[in-house]
Amino acid sequence: MKKMMSEPNTIFQQGCETAFDEEHWQKINYSTGCFETNFAKGKVNYRNLDLEKQRAYTLRNKSLLGLEKLLVDFETHFTENGGKVLWARNADDALTMIFDLIRKEKANSIMRSNSTVLDEIELNGFLERKNIHVVETKVGRFILHEGEQKPYHPLMPSIHLSKEENNAILTGAFKLKPDSTVRQMVNFVRHEVAIESKDVPICITGANFLLSDTGGVVLTENEGNILKSTSTAKVHIVVAGIAKVIQNTDDLSVLLPLLSMHSSGQSMAACNTITFGPTKTGKGPGQMYVILLDNNRSELLAHEKQRKAMSCIHCGACVSVCPVYKNIGGYSYGTKHIGPVGTVMTPLMLGMEEYHHLNAACALCGKCVDICPVKIPIDDLIIENRHLAMTKKEGNARFDALVKAMVWHCKSRKKMDGPMFFKKMEMKRLLGSLWGNRTLPEFASKSFSQQWKERNL
Q: N or C: which end of the chain has fewer CB within 10 A?
């Protein structure tokens, strides 16, 4: 029976057509080029960057090995601080918990930060179906929300939009003047966010790290939106993946500078906050909840080699240097975890059967490995995924047929020298749909052996 192409695979195949869009390529490469320039300037602050990365690698892997105890310790200390920890097996559990807390406060709107884990559980769509207004506090995400678009990059969500396209969205939604400068647009959005956030009782954020020894939640940002939102909200809800927990604040002295530099080239982000629970002074949220999310992370942790991907600190650097991402863009992956690390995580978390095609979304160039601040061997892990897919016999049947046909031909000189008509027909039939918009290469009019004989007789 012929195996039907999965929906994620179809999205991936269609999304790859973006690689032929010259304008898209220029916008993405301009933005990622700015990141690489800033990173090159920032790394001179380290005398031995590789040594610091090795320290980060050791810290994160030590945390993963002791994950079970660290999570229990975090819950104990955070509860002692006056907060409450909720455990969510999957996205549905997390969304139900969030909605129950919103109903408890009788709120009709919430504020949220830029967070991959909130996108992972599809928070916005869920709340909008419940008629709960979502206020995006990050400038780029606010514009995307008004334009009904999804983030394109984990840290630079509107990287795929030009200044004119951002302006067009704001002009259509708020009647902003068409020729606004970047500064004017940013100031306008901040003003609108301040208006929409007024008297909103609940703020929902992700977390950069969770501190096991003190029950602290670490939040790092540049725009200051999280700090401002949590200071005015009555309830602060944190959603964090279970792998976010680290041992203590000493680990932050290594991880935070590396995170900042690999995110934006800065020595340190503008705003770094550690919150230990609800306020005890009357200023800030009177209630604080941390939802610890599994959502198939346990499936990934069960793989001895690929589990290293869970040590990721979500700096986004591997995405910014990935040549595949620069060509096919963020939407092609069909998942919230995009780029090289997402290529490792997604097939194991969401199922190899539906997402095995992502194993091919890597050129094995090693750029992601070179830049990773916690030295995750991403290329090796992708190769492990490919091996696992082959073991489970998950693959493209047409591609497998092509390889078998090529082997059959290459084993025989007589077949290699066969009629040109049949060569072209087989090439088009087997490889045509896999070749995208590119023109299939033409066979030479004479085979190599024929040309060799003519030139050497």
A: N
